[in-house]
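Researcher: I'm preparing a figure for a lab meeting and need a structural model of a single chain. I don't have an experimental structure, so a prediction will have to do for now. The sequence is pasted below. Please return the structure as C-alpha cells so I can convert it later.
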Amino acid sequence: MQVDAFAIRLRTRTPWEATDLGIRLCQREIRSVYRCYWAVALPPFALCLATFEIANWLPAVLIWWLKPWLDRVILFVLSRAGFGQSTTVASVWRSSDVVLWRQLLHSLTLRRLSIRRSFTQPVYQLEGLRGAARRARLRILRQRGGGIAALLTGGFSTIETLLTIGLLSLLIWFAPPGDSPSLASYFVGERAQFFALAYAVCYALVVLALEPFYVGAGFGLYLNRRVELEAWDIEQEFRRAFAH
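Model: Understood. Here is the structure written out cell by cell.
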C-alpha cells in the first residue's frame, strides 16, 4: 500500500468522524460516483421492475438482493478517488472482470446477509487476501468498528425506509381534489397492484440516491481502522517529509 499516495489526510479519528470522512469523500466525487453507479445499476433495476408481472413483491426483493453486488462499483470509484484518481464509466467496464464478476456468488449469498458489509467489503474487494489471511484480517477489523458498522447498516436502512415511505405518501398528497384515497385502500382492492409497483419504483430511486453514501461511510470506517492498526498517518507524514 503506497500510503503517501493517498489524496486524503490520514489520522486517527473517532468512528463517527471516520464515517463522516467517507461521506465527504463520496460528496466530493458524487458526479463520477453517480455516473458510474447508475450506468451499471439502472439496467438490472429495470429488469427487476419488469418481474412485477411474475409477482408484485418480487421487484423490491430483487433490488434489495442485488445491492451488495452493485456496491462494488461505488467502492471502486471511491477507492480510486482516495488516491486522487478520477473514474469514468469506461474505467468501470475495463475493470468489470474484477469489479463486477469476481466474487459474484459470494456477494449475492453470504455478503448479502452481512450487517457489516460496508465496513468489510474493502477487505474482499481491495486487499486481494484469501483463506486464513482474509479471515484474520476480518477478525482484527471487527474487534473495533464492527459494532459501529452494524449500527451504520441499521441507520441507513431506517433512512431508506423513511425516504421510500415519504415518496409513496406523494400518491395521497397529490391525488385529485375529492378523490383522496385512504392509505388502507392501497393494500386491498384494485389499487394494491399499483401500490406494489409504486413501492418498488420508489425503493429503487431511494437506493440509487442513498447507497453511495452508505458505502462511503463504511469505507471511511475501514480506512480509519487501518490507520489505527498500522499507523498509516505516521507513515504518510514521514514519506511526505522525506519526499521534499
